[in-house]
């Protein structure tokens, strides 16, 4: 199934916030950790020439909107039916954004840019998955990827979200290089706010086995990108003057620690030879 984000039957209900990006009021909003990661992704993508882009595991589609607004011709792949429906609604009205549930056999060397954020940890055979994605890239194309950091930070929330693992720096760099990419930049983002939200996230899922009330890891993976129950309740605070100031400060402060291993997630920018 392919869902075209420009279908007129899809209501255009997404809002756009200059600080936080696209969101669906009362349904999907950007959590603080998403905001921290988005801040770095947009900064790292700043100098990229607009081209043909694929985002694997696009979730609710908010970053697809960001990249489409920058002129990229964006395709999002999302296997979760819940997330796919939200992404179609989120990107409705974006002429340069399309979402679909599967990849295509015609994608060999078709894309200028690959993006995938906090997806590999949900895939048991992450090496095979990444190798397939890299095959979709043209020579010289760029990949921007993120994963949750540090094996020692494994927690109940990882199990709740359907993760198979967290990654140490070397785990991630080895994975990317073995897929045939040349690493140009590695960042450890989020410190200190995301470290705090990691701890708070464990409290928020206490007593829950899997995201969205799922029964297993696969179901948790499908729901983890769209289960925003707690964040929807708190989004008003996040959009208040004080909340905006705090998030702006957090985005600035994390820049001081990008070359350390203090944050709770890694981002890699790499190029296909």
Automatic annotation (TrEMBL):
GO biological processes: methylation
Keyword GTP-binding included in the entry's annotation: no
Protein name per Swiss-Prot or TrEMBL: SAM-dependent methyltransferase
Transmembrane segments: none
Keyword field: Methyltransferase, Transferase
Organism: Novosphingobium taihuense
Highest rank taxon of the organism: Bacteria
A Pfam family reported for this protein in Swiss-Prot or TrEMBL: Methyltransf_23
Keyword Nucleotide-binding: no
Gene Ontology molecular function, alphabetical: methyltransferase activity
């Amino acid at each position: 199934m392919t869902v075209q984000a420009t279908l007129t039957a899809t209501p255009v209900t997404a809002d756009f916030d200059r600080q936080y990006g696209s969101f669906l009021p009362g349904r999907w909003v950007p959590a603080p950790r998403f905001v921290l990661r988005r801040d770095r992704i947009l900064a790292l993508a700043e100098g990229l020439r607009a081209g043909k882009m694929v985002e694997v595991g696009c979730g609710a589609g908010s970053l697809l909107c960001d990249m489409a607004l920058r002129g990229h011709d964006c395709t999002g792949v999302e296997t979760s039916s819940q997330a796919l429906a939200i992404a179609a609604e989120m990107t409705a009205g974006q002429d340069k954004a399309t979402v679909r549930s599967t990849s295509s056999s015609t994608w060999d060397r078709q894309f200028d840019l690959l993006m995938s954020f906090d997806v590999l940890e949900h895939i048991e055979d992450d090496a095979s998955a990444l190798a397939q994605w890299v095959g979709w890239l043209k020579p010289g194309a760029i990949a921007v990827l993120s994963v949750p950091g540090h094996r020692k930070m494994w927690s109940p929330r990882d199990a709740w979200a359907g993760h198979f693992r967290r990654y140490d720096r070397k785990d991630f760099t080895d994975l990317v290089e073995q897929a045939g990419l040349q690493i140009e930049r590695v960042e450890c983002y989020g410190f200190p706010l995301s470290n705090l939200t990691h701890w708070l996230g464990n409290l928020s899922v206490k007593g829950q086995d899997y995201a969205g009330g799922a029964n297993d890891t696969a179901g948790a993976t499908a729901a983890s990108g769209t289960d925003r129950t707690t964040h929807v309740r708190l989004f008003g605070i996040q959009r208040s003057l004080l909340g905006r100031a705090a998030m702006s400060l957090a985005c600035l402060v994390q820049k001081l620690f990008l070359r350390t291993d203090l944050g709770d997630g890694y981002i890699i920018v790499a190029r296909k030879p």
